[in-house]
Specification:
By secondary structure, this protein is an alpha+beta fold. The chain contains 2 helices and 3 strands. The chain has helices at 49-67, 87-90, and strands spanning 9-15, 22-28, 74-79. Strands 1-2-3 form a 3-stranded mixed sheet, covered by helices on one side. Strand 2 (22-28), helix 1 and strand 3 (74-79) form a beta-alpha-beta unit. The two termini are 20 Å apart.
Length: 99
């Protein structure tokens, strides 16, 4: 899924020496909109940086092994809070609950 994120973000980068890709991760500094006022309290995504970068690093290595190099050497990731009550607002049309 592609999307647009705006706000204040923390960033973390990794230059993978094996693939040559620069992997960048961006996470919110504080939740915005309905998420920040939700009764469940504030939720931050910056704690998942290392895990997201590791997934991206492993994914690019597998992709390279099967399909060759990507045309770009920079990969940027963002992570945002997804709340079940807001899923139609965050990702309209994506409903995994219906079978």
């Amino acid at each position: 899924m592609a999307g647009f994120n705006y706000g204040l973000f923390k960033s973390k980068q990794l230059q993978d020496p094996d693939t040559g890709y620069q992997i960048e991760f961006y996470a919110n500094e504080e939740p915005a909109g309905p998420i920040s006022t939700a009764s469940m309290g504030a939720m931050y995504t910056s704690g998942g940086a290392d895990r997201a970068i590791a997934f991206a690093q492993n994914s690019t290595r597998i992709y390279d092994a099967f399909f060759g190099k990507l045309p770009s050497t920079r990969i940027a990731l963002t992570q945002r809070v997804a709340v079940a009550a807001c899923k139609d607002v965050l990702a309209p049309g994506l409903d995994n609950d219906k079978k």
